[in-house]
């Protein structure tokens, strides 16, 4: 009997070409598929809630695979971890209900982008935050972030080479938090275009540093023109933070681990 | 004119054989001395507040060196960082007052040991915390930690091969903190014997897991016998957290960066 197993995976993206297979390096998906094969003997596709780019991290990526194996569903987390490198972990696994699909069933995704301010790039955030020398005006960045909330055509915040019919997305949460010399941008929505979060962050950093006016985000949203937006912020500051479905929420599960 | 420059350095000990030169790998001190040489052209000794073992980290190690170079003292931090790898940073530098010595003038040193509990070793703490599968009784560990406070002969908590005349030390702070699935042991004193913090942690983990009774710490302190204490906890969980002198405190400086 084929069952669908869904799981939460955490990874440090530093050493990977991203979630999905690329010709030039190792993908997280590839190592998960290898771990499933070594566990069950089955060649299978591990389907994620979405791709993450090269260098992007995940605190809570959701994925699923189908299997004939009879192992108790919650034991897959342990079995896969014995076959994964230390920078990829499966934190939880269970049998998915009928019709569940990690990508198509996702209702809400949250990302966090970390910026480290201050004169020197710090050691313990070197792989997970962008170090920014410029003085940043936090209030301006916060007001710019507020303009992102709601339903918009985010075409201006998409990598130019991407082909995508529908570029309208709804953003539920868009705010900066300050903790000492760290700044965190938290953004949640029903979906994100390719590079969207990194271009939003790049634009807000331009606003914070005074290279662009506060209205730049609103203008780019209205004008639908990539040229209005700022540069794409580096991948290493970005982390897939949370994914929600009708019947479960990674945040709730992680809080009970 | 020779000046003494003192500085705060932060490092990830994962890739180093410790603070001090060893035959079999790269030491943090060695890379700092090389960076000073590349900056000033002078061969000099970089003297730290104390050695850290292979794999041990520092959030705030203090060190000094002597130089004839005329560079403004606060600029050394920037100059050294351009010559250091990303996992070693100099966060601050200034001219030391007459008679200052990073080791002999230190009044107070604080270490933190991080333990990650829960079923799976997590990705983002893999190099800086010990993952502990066992269920740990937090209250027992806290009570054991209290017994460490005060002036004691810590001979039982010293690596057996160490030769040391005076093994009496005063511990000012010894407590566990819980944050989600992380447990942090904070310990501060006027000095520490070789491996002392790691043996204290090893003993308290034995107590928390029920492998030793709560009285094990007090008995080892009274008996002065290494065999009463537990195993040496792995280096990677340990971080040199704070050093204080009569005229400055790393914590105060870091809070203003």
Please give a structural write-up:
2 copies of one chain form a homodimer. With 257 residues, chain A is of the alpha+beta class. Helices cover 21% and strands 28% of the residues of chain A. The first copy, chain A, is built from 6 helices and 10 strands; from the N terminus they run βαββαβββαβββααβα. In chain A, strands 1, 2, 3, 4, 5, 6, 7, 8, 9 and 10 form a 10-stranded mixed beta sheet that branches. Chain A is globular and about 60 Å long. In chain A, 42% of the residues are buried. Chain A binds chain B through residues 10-12, 57, 59, 77-78, 81, 86-91, 118-124, 126, 128, 180-181, 257, and chain B through 10-12, 57, 59, 77-78, 81, 86-91, 118-124, 126, 128, 181, 255, 257.
Which helices and strands appear, and what pairs or packs with what?
Two copies of one chain form a homodimer.
Chain A: E1 3-11, H1 28-40, E2 47-48, E3 57-67, H2 76-81, E4 88-95, E5 108-116, E6 130-131, H3 138-146, E7 150-153, E8 168-179, E9 182-189, H4 196-208, H5 216-223, E10 238-244, H6 250-255
Helix pairs in contact in A: 3-4
Please give a handful of descriptors for the protein shown.
ten-stranded mixed β-sheet, 6 helices, 28% strand, 257 residues, alpha+beta, 21% helix, homodimer
Quick structural gist:
Two copies of one chain form a homodimer. Chain A is α+β, with helices and mostly antiparallel strands and 257 residues long.
């Amino acid at each position: 009997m084929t069952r669908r197993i869904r799981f939460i995976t955490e990874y440090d993206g530093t050493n990977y070409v991203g979630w999905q297979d690329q010709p030039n390096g190792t993908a997280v998906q590839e190592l998960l598929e290898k771990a499933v094969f070594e566990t069950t003997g089955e060649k299978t596709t591990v389907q994620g809630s979405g791709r993450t780019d090269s260098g992007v991290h995940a605190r809570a990526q959701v994925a699923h695979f189908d299997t004939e194996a009879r192992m108790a569903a919650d034991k897959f987390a342990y079995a896969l971890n014995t076959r994964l490198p230390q920078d990829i972990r499966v934190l939880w696994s269970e049998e998915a209900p009928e019709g569940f699909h990690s990508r198509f069933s996702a209702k809400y995704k949250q990302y966090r982008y970390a910026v480290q301010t201050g004169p020197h790039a710090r050691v313990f955030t070197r792989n997970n935050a962008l170090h920014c020398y410029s003085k940043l005006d936090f209030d301006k960045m916060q007001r710019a972030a507020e303009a992102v909330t709601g339903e918009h055509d985010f075409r201006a915040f998409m990598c130019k080479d991407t082909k995508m019919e529908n570029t309208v997305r709804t953003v539920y949460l868009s705010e900066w938090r300050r903790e000492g010399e760290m700044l965190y941008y938290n953004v949640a929505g029903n979906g994100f275009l390719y590079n969207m979060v990194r271009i939003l962050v790049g634009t807000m950093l331009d606003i914070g540093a005074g290279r662009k006016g506060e209205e730049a985000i609103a203008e780019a949203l209205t004008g639908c023109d990539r040229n209005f937006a700022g540069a794409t912020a580096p991948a290493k500051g970005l982390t897939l933070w949370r994914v929600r479905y009708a019947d479960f929420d990674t945040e709730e599960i992680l809080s009970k681990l």
